[in-house]
Structure formats: structure tokens, C-alpha cells
Amino acid sequence: MTAKIGIDRHQMRYHPKQEVERLRQYGSIFWSNLNQRWLIVEQKLALDVLRDDKFHLPPYSNSVGSLEKITGEDLGQLQALSMFIPFLHNGIYHKSIREVLTKILVEIQPRYYQLLPEVVDDLIHDLLKNGSGDFAEEFSYRLHMATLSKVIGMPASSVEIINPMLTSENLNYNNSVSEFVNTELRLRVAFAEMKKLVNENEDIRAFHERVGRYLVDADLEDTFNNRIFAMMAVMIIGRDTIAGAISLSLHEAFEQFGDRIDGDQLASLDTKARELLRLTSPVNIIEREASEPRKVGDQAIAAGERVLVVIRAVNTDPAVYGCPHQLTEASKENDGFVFGSGIHTCIGRNLALEALRVSFQKISQLRAIHRFGEVTMGTGRNTQSVDRMTMKVEI
Ligand code: HEM
To answer: Which CATH number covers residue 180?
Structure first.
């Protein structure tokens, strides 16, 4: 029997360093019969693919349409929302959608940056008040949504409803029908809540109207629903990645420095956050499909074949950073592909980096942080995170 070559999701979740080293043994680019795609683990080859416009992002929203036909399920909400999520929909509207979402982010950013320090202080204060707490759940997971909802004036009670879980366990990198159906049901509830808020809440209605202008400017149809979908896209997209970025980076700090971090080591976390983020890379893979026959390194790729850039592997490529998985000076110039590269580069990069920076700055000013108990690693559709990490903070 042929060995199953490919990403073992369980290993990637619990033993990512070993899993990345295992994948490297197969070469810089190799065919995965498990994932039915070419896997890339070398940074130079990843760059060649992401900068090549003959490699495009596969249009997942088409898969939603096909799934509707095959299963007879109504996935209308998911299909409509996925049009506003650039990595799910790579059609002719990509540039316009990117423009609208960027404008929303630009509008949000100044106030978000202003509010971040006090939100971080409040979350640390809650951990202190209770003696100890789950950093993943009570800090990293809450931070982005707490700040975002304050910026747009959303009542706390609506935050979780608007932001339904888009993640699910036991997924592979192919589309899973039950995942789509579950997401559809959650989205219907979220959409209804958002509609209610627009009708009842003055701040949100004003925001909704401004989004209408952004749609018109980008030559997209300005409908009541499209405004809501654009707003929901911005609220949903960054949540798991920001939470993953903060909790994985702190988890990695504990891995490198031990279960109790204090003194100079704690103070130094302030400047190490970006490096820890590179080492842990919360988004797992970037996928592309060849529209014409291509060559990546020495490997011929046929038209229609897909490649997966394994982000954590290219971000710890020994050819670029020397010793993989260790903190180095190298990433001051090159922090890898944490946020992708090329025309789909993450538009939330600055916002996410600011959330990470402020969190680590505040944490590095404490007297000590102490991790204890078992850590549970988490995973989403294409993200890694920490589900549970109990921590005590001392001031
Ligand atoms: C640390 C947190 C984050 C990480 C690690 C991350 C990572 C990424 C990566 C790797 C891509 C490229 C996907 C590809 O090329 O196929 C991407 C795209 C994207 N990200 Fe992020 N992201 C983060 C936070 C955010 C936030 C906060 C937002 C918005 C609120 C956001 C919005 C987007 C959007 C809209 C795209 C698609 C861009 C396009 O296709 O043109 N991200 N992100």
C-alpha cells in the first residue's frame, strides 16, 4: 500500500514542529495523495507561486452553488456572504470587494487603535481579579470582538450572535457538506440579528449607510442585504485569526522560556511578538490552482492542479532563517507569509499586528505570567489556535 503523504491535521495541531519537519523530508515541493494537491514547504517556491498570476485562488463560492444542487440544501445565505469573503470568492468582483472591505477597515482602524489599550487592560484586569483564567477564551478570543463592537456601537448581547462560529472539527482541506449546512443555519440567525440592529440601533444604521456608499464607489450593487453582508464579512473574517495569533504566540513564548516567565524574559516579549507569530503562523495553508501548465522549481504542474503553501513550514524554512522553530534576528526583515503575499495579501494585517503588539506590550509590563494545567490546542477550517491555556498573572 502507498504511504499516505500529506498534512496530518492531528499532528499539525498538537506537534506542529515535528509535523513540519516530517513534511520537509519529502522535498521542497511534492505531491500529496492525502490532500490531492502539491505541497510547498520552501519559502522561495512559495513566493514564486504567490507572485504568479497564472496561479489563482480556487473559487469556493462556486462549490457552494454545486453543493446546493447536489444536496438540495438551501445554502443561499452562505453563498451571498461568501461573495464578500475574498478567499472564498475569487471572481470578477475580487478587486471591488477588497476595496469595500478595506474602506470599512480604514474607517474602523483609528478608533480601534484608540480603544485597544483599555480593552487589553480590562481583559488583564479580569484575569487578575479571578486569580487565574483561561487566556485563550478570556483574553485572545474576546479581544478583537470586544474592541470591534465598541467601535461600531454594537450591544454586547449581539456580539456572539453576529459572529457565529464558522469553524468545525474534523475537517479536511476539501469541502465538507455538513460544515456548509451548519454554517448556513448559523448565518441565518446572525443575519436576522444584524438586520434587527440596523433597524433599531442608530450607530449601526449610520455605519450601514456608509457601507452603501463604499459599495457604490466600488461599482457593486448597493442593496440593504449587501451592506449587511459586507459588514458581517469584516466582523467574521479576522476573529479566529487574531485570537489564534495572540494565543499561539504566547503559547510559543511559554514553550521557549518555560511555564513561568518573569524579569528580563517577560520584558523582552514586547519586542518578540512578531517573531513568535512567524514561528506559529495561525493560518495553515494558502491554496492556489494553476490556470496554465507551470513549473515550480523543477516540478511541472499541470493546468487545473492545485498547490498548498504550508505556511508554518515556509515561515520556518531553514534556508531563510537558519535554525527552524527558534527565535532569531532574521525575521526583523522577513516575517514570512503569516499574512500571505501577492494580490490576496491580508487586508487586516495592520489591525492584527496592532492587536498583537498592544497585547504583548501590556503583558510584558506585568511582574510574571505563569502557565499551568493542560493546554488544549484548537483548529478551525484553516487556522490553528489555542482553545484552552490556564494562566496566572502577577502585577
Ligand atoms: C493575525 C491575524 C491574521 C492572519 C494570520 C491572517 C492571514 C491571512 C492570510 C495568510 C491571507 C491570504 C490568503 C490567501 O492568499 O489565500 C489573508 C487574507 C485576508 N485577510 Fe487576513 N489574517 C489575519 C487577520 C485578518 C483580519 C483582522 C482581517 C479583517 C478584519 C483579515 C482580512 C483578510 C481578507 C479580507 C483577506 C483576503 C484578501 C484577498 O483575497 O484579497 N485578516 N489573511
So the answer is: 1.10.630.10
